[in-house]
Write a structure and sequence with these properties.
The chain is mainly β. It has three helices and 16 strands. It has an eight-stranded antiparallel β-barrel. The N and C termini lie far apart (70 Å).
Length: 242
């Protein structure tokens, strides 16, 4: 018995819908304590890119990072990577083209117009064939990626670079300040404990794969996007405040 093209299309559509529903049910079945694990970057930031990144680890430790972020978009043309960011000083789009050498979990960029190499490494293990360039990378020195935060000489600009879905691009600096503590869930309530402060209690929400929660006891709710699921991602260094 031969199967018509129309039947194949119908079967494929049903299978795709079933898979999507199954994945959605899987996320819905996760508890808040499971969903919150990882690194979350604030979607609302000051004009200079300053904002917060939250880190929840499986061992119950918590970090609130103050960092800088720049956003843009990316595209590839063969072995060439094209990066678009906003030039604040000139109020216009800034375009950079790089020759790209992608080897599993390492990436080397060389500006097509000339210049030194930018070497990058993945912040967590990935399926290099499936993910390709997608995911988060770390560079010890990516000039122009984020606002310069002088940390000594020679001047370097370390940056986390995320090549996201729909060609979204973000640069995130090493943290300029870190606040550490511990967290736990009591039912669906999140309790964050930091030395010298009363516990922060809230019920985090996860609409559209975002994390929504306040970061102070009486503060407004912030929206965060999930950046890295691996707790082995490098956090960097910065002034620490308990």
């Amino acid at each position: 018995m031969r199967t018509s093209v129309r039947e194949v299309v119908i079967i494929g559509t049903v299978l795709a819908a079933t898979l999507a529903q199954s994945q959605a049910r899987g996320k819905d079945a996760e508890t808040p304590a499971e969903r919150i694990i990882g690194m979350w970057s604030s979607l609302i930031r000051l004009p200079d890119g300053k904002g917060y990144t939250l880190v929840f680890k499986t061992d119950g430790t918590f970090e609130q990072l103050l960092d800088f972020q720049t956003v843009g978009r990316w595209e590839t043309k063969g072995k060439q990577l094209v990066v678009h960011t906003w030039d604040r000083e000139r109020s216009r789009d800034k375009k950079q083209a790089f020759e790209m050498d992608l080897q599993a979990n390492s990436l080397v960029l060389k500006e097509a117009a000339g210049g030194g190499e930018i070497r990058m490494a993945r912040t967590h293990e990935a399926d290099s064939i499936r993910d390709g360039l997608m995911g988060e990378w770390y560079s010890e020195n990516y000039p122009g990626g984020v606002p310069v935060v002088p940390l000594g000489l020679p001047l370097r600009t370390p940056a986390f670079v995320e090549f996201g879905r729909e060609h979204r691009l973000s640069f995130r600096s090493n943290p300029v300040a870190i606040r550490r503590g511990r967290y736990e869930f009591v039912g669906k309530e999140l309790v964050i404990m930091r030395e010298g402060e009363p516990p922060l209690r809230c019920k985090p929400r996860f609409p559209d794969d975002q994390l929504r929660m306040p970061i102070t006891a009486r503060g407004p709710e912030f929206a965060f996007k999930h950046v890295v699921t691996s707790e082995n991602a490098p956090i960097g260094t910065g002034p620490s405040k308990p």
